[in-house]
Write a structure and sequence with these properties.
It is a single chain. The protein is mainly alpha-helical and 232 residues long. It has one domain: Growth Hormone, Chain: A, CATH 1.20.1250. The protein is built from eight helices and no strands. Helix 5 runs antiparallel to helix 6. The longest helix has 33 residues. The protein is globular.
Length: 232
């Protein structure tokens, strides 16, 4: 069954994206980075990691406080909560790869800045409505944000790393998710229990504003570094 779905997904991508010309040339490190640059000596990347951790902490509310809020505040049963989350899965399955393909030549950090904002705003909108249809609409908002953030952030990390340091970069990138998995659910649950769901979701919106500004600032730094790396 799993093999069949993989084949169907591959066929869909071939039809949707079209056959690209030959295999792309090997990518060179971004911004003129040396192939053996350590991630620990990359200030932009080190500034990126806390932002990534914050975004992932919001993401992991989906597996902790989000189902609790859907049941307690919106009265959704387990089956309806499953339907809500299925909207996310369906939209990503149909559109994420097409969207990534269309935007592949854009600045990934600028795209991710907007995506992070939309992802967090999708949660911040929750207290403003109460119907099942409204909840579904908020899912569409944060799903679009997810598609515009996570793939482009991982692509930025891969492009920034040199050939020999890719493992180090991706290891720290993965560590940011691990830290968020450890911190996100307990922090979110504490806020939810102490101050209520409304405070938690509005807090996610505030985090979204911070992430938007942070990733835009990193994008400006990347552009300046790239310009400095270009020989006169």
């Amino acid at each position: 069954m799993d093999g069949g779905t993989c084949l169907l997904a591959a066929a869909f991508l071939v039809v949707a994206l079209g056959r690209e010309a030959e295999a792309p040339a090997a990518a060179s490190p971004a911004e003129g980075a040396p192939a053996d640059r350590s991630p620990w000596g990359d200030p932009l990347f080190l500034a990126f990691l806390p932002l990534m951790t914050l975004l992932a902490m919001v993401l992991f509310q989906l597996f902790s406080t989000y189902p609790l809020a859907l049941h307690a505040y919106y009265g959704l049963s387990e089956s309806r909560i499953g339907l809500v989350l299925a909207i996310n899965t369906l939209v990503i399955s149909l559109f994420e790869m097409v969207l990534v393909h269309r935007l592949r030549d854009r600045d990934p950090l600028r795209i991710a800045a907007l995506g992070s904002f939309l992802f967090c705003v999708g949660f911040a909108l929750m207290p403003l409505g109460s119907s099942f249809a409204y909840v579904g609409a908020t899912v569409l908002v944060w799903t679009v944000g997810e598609m515009l953030s996570l793939p482009f952030l991982s692509a930025w990390v891969g492009d920034r790393a040199g050939e020999k340091s890719l493992g180090g970069y991706m290891g720290l990138f993965t560590l940011s998710f691990s830290m968020a998995f450890v911190l996100g659910p307990p922090v979110g649950t504490w806020v939810y229990q102490r101050f209520g769901g409304t405070a938690l979701w509005y807090g996610c919106g505030v985090v979204g504003l911070f992430l938007w500004a942070g990733f835009l600032a990193l994008s400006s730094g990347s552009l300046r570094q790239r310009a400095d790396a270009v020989p006169p």
